[in-house]
Amino acid sequence: MRAEQRSPVEGTGQPGTRAAYPLVRVYRISPSPYQLPIAGVASRSGLSPELVSRFVALGLVDAERDARGRLWFRPSAPSAIARVQRLRTGLGLNYAAIGVVLDLLDRIERLEIALRRSERAAKEQTPWT
């Protein structure tokens, strides 16, 4: 359709019309790994949403806030909460101590991965030529 034949309402967003130009440019970024709402995490972990938000405030579970202030969690959040609960009931630790233990366990895991990589690299023969 040529420009002079267009009706004045075409492209204005009214029903039955089509836009002749984009009104808003949309930039897509990679999808966020934070996909579970707080209600889903609370129901999967068997805790109240208030306790889950307390875990977030204490830094025991990672979450992200959206523009409205709602919390969103990774799919692995219920297992992280289960880990916190096991440390709390099994060892009788308070939440501050649990944070320290979780940090130490994460550091140990990273060091073990680095050790395995270096052992694997040492076993591989490098050519001298």
The strands making up the biggest β-sheet line up spatially as 1-3-2
Number of helices: 4
Mean pLDDT: 82
The low-pLDDT segments are 1-11
Indicate the overall shape.
elongated
Number of strands: 3
Rg to the nearest angstrom?
Answer: 26 Å
Biggest β-sheet description = 3 strands, antiparallel
State the main characteristics.
single chain; disordered N terminus; mainly alpha; 3-stranded antiparallel β-sheet; 129 residues
Helices and strands in order:
Elements: E1 36-37, H1 38-45, H2 49-58, E2 63-65, E3 71-73, H3 77-91, H4 95-123
Antiparallel strand pairs: 1-3, 2-3
Q: Can you characterise this structure?
A:
With 129 residues, this protein is mainly alpha-helical. The chain contains 4 helices and 3 strands; from the N terminus they run E-H-H-E-E-H-H. Strands 1-3-2 form a 3-stranded antiparallel sheet. The chain is elongated, with a radius of gyration of 26 Å. Mean pLDDT is 82; it is low at 1-11.
In short:
This protein has 129 residues and is mainly alpha-helical.
